[in-house]
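Quick one, probably user error.
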């Protein structure tokens, strides 16, 4: 393990080797002992937990947060490392490309271009939709895939990249659109997906953050959007900015924090765009919101240890367990990881009765690449998740039907 740690840290130092970034020069990689969800929640109240492994949590945090950790959880620190962050040289500020080796990942512009291409190639069954604009004015663009075959239908919303550095989720959602459209001629099963259901795919909810994260051709471990908080700090954590029990637990009121909740629920144009889109669409019954990493399938509640209860609890558990059979991820209630309020799924389920799952994609751990697993992770992650995604689409018209299904093991 030690060797692996050193290996990974030197990789990180290498990829981040352009040093110093505006005010923030270093981050701290910390490993804390945290043996249960209650302790993890206490820690999540202070810092964004990146992964949970057995009785430990790992995080990659600012110096400011590290000082808080030293103050509050001194006895829990197993190890920590200070890591220099990359600096954006002025001459590199306008370069919008992934670091060398990772160019296969789609930048904001490439994502937009790909969505336009898919729409152009499939004009009769696709529409481009803008949910709204980001803080910096970028379009939050998505694609609707549907035919007019069936009149009474529900919709599914599949989203990528709420968190800037979770670029793999842009790839998975884009590839899902490519896969459905690319196989529509060959497979009746795939045609049925959009004949029966309306599929909305939005690969980049946080285009400003994702763009910032790769500025200058190196990664910056950015999580939030790019709101100017007015005190020298930037960013609101979009997955703490939704409106159900906003700000009550596992979120920070400090604008400098990586889990900053914002000034109010839905203060951010990106979360407001999702809210308004869901409300205007009206018939969304399922949401898949893609995050990385840890290989988990999470379902509400996230703010409390209580389950949602009743038949809905059974639907959540059945769907999560079924999907985990295919991707091998661990299915669990969000709060079993740690409690936080203001995430997408608590709001979607509480306000709109939408069955909403948060996927934490590959890799499993920091040691396998964390948020930056490299381009070689894209295809395996898609292969692992396309069956769960198809299953969620197939049950969108009547999610309760899963209660009468046997555990499936199908191939395409
Ligand atoms: O903390 C988050 O926003 C998500 N994890 S991530 O590493 N992608 O940031 C998980 C949210 C799950 N919801 C709750 N635990 N409430
Ligand atoms: Zn995330």
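Nope, works fine. Designed sequence:
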């Amino acid at each position: 393990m030690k060797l692996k740690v050193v290996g990974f840290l030197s990789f990180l130092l290498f990829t981040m080797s352009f040093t110093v970034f505006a005010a923030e020069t270093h981050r701290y990689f910390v490993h804390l002992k945290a043996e249960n969800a209650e302790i993890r929640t206490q820690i999540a109240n202070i810092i964004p937990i990146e992964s949970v492994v057995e009785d430990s949590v790992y995080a990659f945090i600012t110096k400011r947060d590290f000082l808080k950790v030293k103050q509050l959880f001194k006895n829990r620190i197993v190890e920590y490392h200070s890591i220099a962050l990359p600096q954006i040289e002025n001459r590199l500020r306008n370069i919008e490309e992934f670091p060398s080796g990772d160019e296969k990942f789609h930048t904001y512009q490439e994502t937009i271009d790909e969505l336009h291409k898919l729409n152009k190639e499939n004009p009769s069954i696709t529409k481009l939709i803008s949910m709204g604009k980001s803080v910096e004015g970028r379009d939050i663009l998505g694609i609707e895939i549907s035919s007019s075959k069936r009149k009474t239908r529900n919709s599914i919303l599949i989203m990528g990249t709420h968190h800037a550095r979770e670029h793999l989720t842009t790839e998975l959602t884009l590839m899902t659109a490519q896969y459905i459209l690319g196989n529509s001629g060959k497979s009746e099963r795939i045609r049925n997906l959009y004949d029966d259901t309306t599929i909305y795919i939005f690969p980049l909810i946080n285009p400003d953050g994702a763009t910032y994260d790769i500025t200058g051709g190196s990664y910056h471990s950015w999580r939030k959007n790019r709101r100017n908080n007015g005190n020298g700090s930037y960013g609101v954590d979009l997955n703490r900015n939704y409106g159900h029990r906003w700000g009550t637990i596992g979120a920070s009121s400090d604008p400098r924090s990586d889990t900053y909740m914002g000034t109010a629920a839905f203060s951010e144009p990106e979360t407001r765009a999702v809210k308004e889109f869901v409300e205007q669409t009206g018939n969304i019954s399922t949401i898949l919101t893609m995050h990385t990493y840890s290989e988990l399938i999470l379902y509400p509640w996230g703010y409390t240890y209580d389950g949602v209860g009743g038949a809905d609890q059974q639907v959540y558990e059945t769907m999560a367990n079924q999907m985990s059979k295919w991707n091998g991820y661990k299915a669990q209630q969000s709060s079993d990881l740690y409690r936080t309020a203001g995430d997408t799924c608590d709001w979607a389920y509480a306000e709109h009765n939408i069955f909403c799952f948060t996927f934490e994609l590959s890799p499993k751990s920091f040691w396998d690449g964390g948020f930056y697993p490299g381009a070689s992770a894209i295809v395996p992650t898609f292969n692992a998740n396309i069956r769960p995604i198809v299953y969620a689409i197939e049950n969108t018209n009547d999610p309760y039907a899963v209660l009468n299904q046997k555990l499936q093991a199908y191939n395409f």
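The radius of gyration is 20 Å.
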